[in-house]
Amino acid sequence: MNRVAPGEALDATDSVIGIGNCYVSDYNVDLSVGSLPTVNVTVEGANMLSSTSGSGFSSPAIDQEAGTAINGVINLPDPTQDGGIASKGGPITALRPGDVTLDLTNVDGESLVKLQGADGAHVQSASISIPLSRSPIDRLGSRFPFAREVDFPVNATMNISAIVADAQAASLSDILNSGVQTASITIKDHQTVPEDAIIYTMKGLKIDSQSFSSSIGSNKTVDLTFSTQIGGPNDELNGIFMSGAGFNQVFV
User: Fold this and answer.
1) Does some domain include residue 8?
2) CA-to-CA distance for 134 and 152, rounded, in angstroms?
């Protein structure tokens, strides 16, 4: 695929590789001190198509039962016009680790160390993992699986690594018997007036593990793992909820 510079529109000489009938099968977020926030997404598709763009590029989608192409063109918006990246005052290259905020107030009591406040732990990294395994459903007369349904329940996890600042009074038995909690991660888009670019909210969290490391000459650290279960698409009390700022409509 030819490289297109930020803010540059596609032309007739650009080639595009598209994957049709995609289903997200895995989603991972990694946040750490000194590194740019990253997201890794794994998708499973039924078709792949390479084409030149021209004013748009051919849709890679297929009729999954007949195995035939669905004719269509996908047009990318002009990045210099209203709604494009360049129209926002220049391309956004990356969000910064210094603009990441973790709200662990509700899970503070789930750990033997303080997680929030002025004397709370100094978080070094956080990650969210959402495995979305899917079962292909076939039937007679269909050349491809006509659906790939998510295997519920989905067990999502959040891992946190931090430098310990202070301990707090807590009992392991009380922690195990505590109710479900909520935590959130907010990433700001640093502009003239900063705004929330992405917010991840995890509801129904339970702590799975916490481990401590203490040695001479090194900071004492703690690693915590929380998990929540997504029971279905209509479950609003448990799972991961994502929101953010969006201004670039890709499919028109």
Assistant:
1) no
2) 9
| CATH number of the domain residue 175 falls in | 2.30.110
The mean pLDDT of the chain is: 79
Question: CA 194 to CA 191: how far, in whole Å?
Answer: 5
Question: Is position 78 within any domain?
Answer: no
Structural domain that includes position 148 = 25-42+89-244
Report if residue 60 sits inside a domain. Answer: no
Per residue in 53-73, pLDDT tens? 655 677 888 888 777 888 877
89 φ/ψ sector (left φ>0, alpha ψ -120 to 50, else beta): left
CA distance 245 to 189: 9
For tokens 């107030």, the residue is 105
226-238 pLDDT per residue, tens: 999 988 778 888 8
pLDDT: which is higher, 37 or 170: 37
DSSP character for 91? Answer: -
**Rounded CA gap, 23 and 136, in Å?**
11
Q: Are the CB atoms for 54 and 73 separated by under 8 Å?
A: no
Q: How far is CA 42 from CA 25, 27, 248, in A?
A: 6, 7, 22
Cis peptide before 153 (omega within 30 of 0): yes
What's the Cα-to-Cα distance from 139 to each of 114, 134, 143, 147, rounded to whole Å? 54, 16, 9, 10
Phi, psi of 57 (to 5 degrees): -135, 155
Position 228: which residue type? T
Residue 6 pLDDT greater than 50, yes or no: no
Per the structure, the count of domains in the chain is 1
pLDDT digits (tens, 9 = 90+) for 94-133: 888 888 989 888 887 777 788 887 778 889 999 999 999 8
Q: Is residue 95 part of a domain?
A: yes
